[in-house]
Amino acid sequence: MKLTTQTDYALRTLMFLATQSSRSKVADIAQLFGISVNHVGKVVNLLAREGYIRSTRGVGGGIELAQPPHDISIGAVIACMESNLHLLACVGADDSCTIHGFCKLKGVLAEAERVQREYLDGVTLADIAPTARQLQLVQ
After folding, report:
1. Where are the alpha helices (DSSP H) in 34-131?
2. What is the DSSP code (8-state) at residue 124?
3. For residue range 17-32, what is the model confidence (pLDDT) as tens digits?
4. Which is more confident, 4 or 97?
């Protein structure tokens, strides 16, 4: 599986927010990771729509996690950000190949995907979040 840049930015945004004790600005995330504010803004909108973050407008506004880090599964975030997690098209379809009736590769890849999903579903944001101090050292 290769994750899209959007998923990468979403995970980085969540990792950053997990280290913050107050609301943050999109611009702070963009600056830390060297990402455009527009890209972070798009990811923030998606994460807010999925219920991972809360966005507050106006004076004193900003973004923050909507759930505790230990309740956010990395596998779930990846699944909601990615449109296709299959290693090959045949894993997600019944007849995408001329040898689908006797091919053993599809089963092997399906099992690999299952193991990968199971593992990622067991990893939480709390497991991967850096400390606030580690992020300060990057700046």
Report:
1. 37-49, 74-81, 105-121, 125-128
2. B
3. 999 989 999 999 999 9
4. 4
Instruction: Assign 65 to helix, strand or coil.
Output: strand
pLDDT tens for 107-127 read 888 888 889 999 999 999 999
Pairwise CA distance, residues 41 & 103, whole Å: 44
How is residue 1 written in tokens?
């599986």
Tokens of 3: 């994750």
The contacts of residue 128 (CB under 8 Å, 6+ apart) are 11, 15, 74
Q: Which amino acid does the sequence have at 83?
A: S
User: Are 20 and 54 in contact, with CB atoms under 8 Å apart?
Assistant: no
| Tokens linked to 36 | 């455009």
Query: CA angle, 12 as apex, 131 and 36 as ends, to 5°?
Result: 125
Closest CA to 32 of 4, 13, 45, 11: 13
Which residues lie closer than 8 Å to 40 by C-beta, 6 or more apart?
9, 13, 26, 29, 30, 33
Every domain of the chain and the residues it spans: 5-84+124-138
- Cβ neighbours around 50 below 10 Å, total: 14
CATH class of 5-84+124-138: mainly alpha
